[in-house]
Amino acid sequence: DQPRALLCAGATKDMGKMLGGEEEKDPDAQKKEEERQEALRQQEEERKAKHARMEAEREKVRQQIRDKYGLKKKEEKEAEEKAALEQPCEGSLTRPKKAIPAGCGDEEEEEEESILDTVLKYLPGPLQDMFKK
């Protein structure tokens, strides 16, 4: 009978909590939660420090490989390419359209007509008549 009585007493106590009754407050609960949060922060800092050390070691190895094979970092390559684009060579195929002098390529239709006229001049008479029509 005694175990059943203890079981019922515990059940009614829990039922009171579920129905909105006063919950027992643990006086050390606040302190325990703060300690837990501090432990989590400390673990996170240690993890970040560990990863920073690992990345520094990796970067050291990468730099040794770059030095050995004469490679450049991605940032250095991009900086050099950008500098090369800012200083286009004269007559470069990749120069901007603004750099094309006036009169070069502006009058394409007239040039084509003049070329056709020039070719027609050298054709024999009967062929000239055919092309003019």
UniProtKB/TrEMBL annotation:
Biased composition (Basic and acidic residues): 14-84
Cell compartments where the protein resides: Cytoplasm, Cytosol; Nucleus; Perikaryon; Presynapse
One Gene Ontology CC term in the entry: SNARE complex
GO biological process entries: regulation of neurotransmitter secretion; synaptic vesicle exocytosis
Compositionally biased spans, kind Acidic residues: 105-115
Region feature Disordered, mapped onto this chain: 1-115
GO MF annotations in UniProt: syntaxin binding
CDD domains according to UniProt: Complexin_NTD_CPLX_I_II
Keyword Nucleus attached: yes
Any single Pfam family the record assigns to this protein: Synaphin
Keywords of this entry: Cell projection, Coiled coil, Cytoplasm, Exocytosis, Neurotransmitter transport, Nucleus, Synapse, Transport
SUPFAM superfamilies per UniProt: SNARE fusion complex
Keyword Transit peptide found: no
Quaternary structure, from the entry: Binds to the SNARE core complex containing SNAP25, VAMP2 and STX1A.
Similarity comment: Belongs to the complexin/synaphin family.
Protein name listed in UniProt: Complexin-2
Species this chain originates from: Chaetorhynchus papuensis
